[in-house]
Amino acid sequence: MTAASLFASPFTESRPRVRMTHVELTEELERLRAEIARLRAGEEPLEVGQRMTTGGHLLWLLGESPAEMRVRLAADLFAARQAADSCFASDHGRALRRFRLRTEQLEGRLQHARREAQRMAEVSNGAGRGVALSLSWLLAEHDVTAPVVL
Fold first, then answer.
1. Would you write out the chain's pLDDT as a tens digit for each of its 150 residues?
2. Quick one: three-class SS letters along the chain?
């Protein structure tokens, strides 16, 4: 491997090594500066000890980091994203199962309470009818068959 190949840039054309004129060097310098500006666009420098709070901070950190650190950080970000997606999906399914079980339990209790309200309504004395009316009113407030509004 030659020294020239070590410093070869993917942004330059493959051409024989010749002396460049001042104008060519100036144009090449401007092109490289524009490419660096494009690559660094959106960066927001961080001070030592400052928390990263924006994407610009992350871009700046990646731009200032060695390749090994950038690759490790990208792998960590990818793994964290996968874990978050998995966690959300798992918790979502678990929460749905828990809500369904709770709904079934409440439906059973409500059915029992409806039966009791009906039984009490059939009682001939006024106290039983009063309890039945109160219980019916409470049951109407907690009707699980009504559509859920979020």
1. 555 555 555 555 566 667 888 999 999 999 999 998 888 888 888 887 788 888 888 888 888 888 888 888 888 888 888 888 877 777 777 777 888 888 888 777 777 777 776 776 676 566 666 666 666 666 665 555 554 443
2. CCHHHHCCCCCCCCCCCCCCCHHHHHHHHHHHHHHHHHHHCCCCCCCCCCCCCCHHHHHHHHHHCCHHHHHHHHHHHHHHHHHHHHHHHHHHHHHHHHHHHHHHHHHHHHHHHHHHHHHHHCCCCHHHHHHHHHHHHHHHHCCCCCCCCC
